[in-house]
UniProtKB/TrEMBL annotation:
The modification Phosphohistidine is found at H60. Residues 21-120 form the HPt domain. GO terms for molecular function: protein kinase activity. Transmembrane segments: none annotated. Coiled coil: none annotated. GO terms for biological process: phosphorelay signal transduction system. InterPro entries: HPT_dom_sf, Sig_transdc_His_kin_Hpt_dom. This is HPt (Histidine-containing phosphotransfer) domain-containing protein. It comes from the Bacteria.
């Protein structure tokens, strides 16, 4: 498989999970690239509305998908958002944390698209 070093993506987990099945990897990555942006838009909307229950649930929903693409740092950032919303603590930090995470996701999508071009 690919030995490309990315800033955020680490394909080792997905390559291992898939047993090197490039078709399965493609399907998972394409689904991630297609579904994560609307999921993040929904999270942004809940944050804007200060609906902390929905913020918690949406962050919880998105979080595991980041593990598939090896974006564990971003997964941890989403965990912080989830925890703050769930525990109703330091709610003023949630918007800043989300705003810091969003541009990283754009870079991640680019990395995943590059990776998709390297597999058959």
């Amino acid at each position: 498989m690919s030995n490309i070093n990315f800033e955020f993506a680490n394909m080792a987990y997905l390559e291992d999970l898939s047993g090197g099945n490039t078709q399965l990897i493609k399907e998972i990555l394409q689904l991630f690239i297609k579904q994560t942006p609307p999921d993040m838009e929904l999270l942004a909307s809940h944050i804007h509305q200060e609906d902390w229950e929905k913020v918690y649930k949406q962050a919880h929903h998105i979080k595991p998908t980041l593990a598939y693409v090896g974006a564990n740092g971003m997964r941890a950032e989403l965990q912080e958002i989830e925890s703050l919303a769930k525990n109703r603590q330091d709610l003023n930090q949630i918007t800043a944390k989300f705003d810091a995470l969003a541009p990283k996701l754009e870079i991640l999508y680019g990395e995943l698209n590059v990776y998709l071009q390297t597999i058959d």
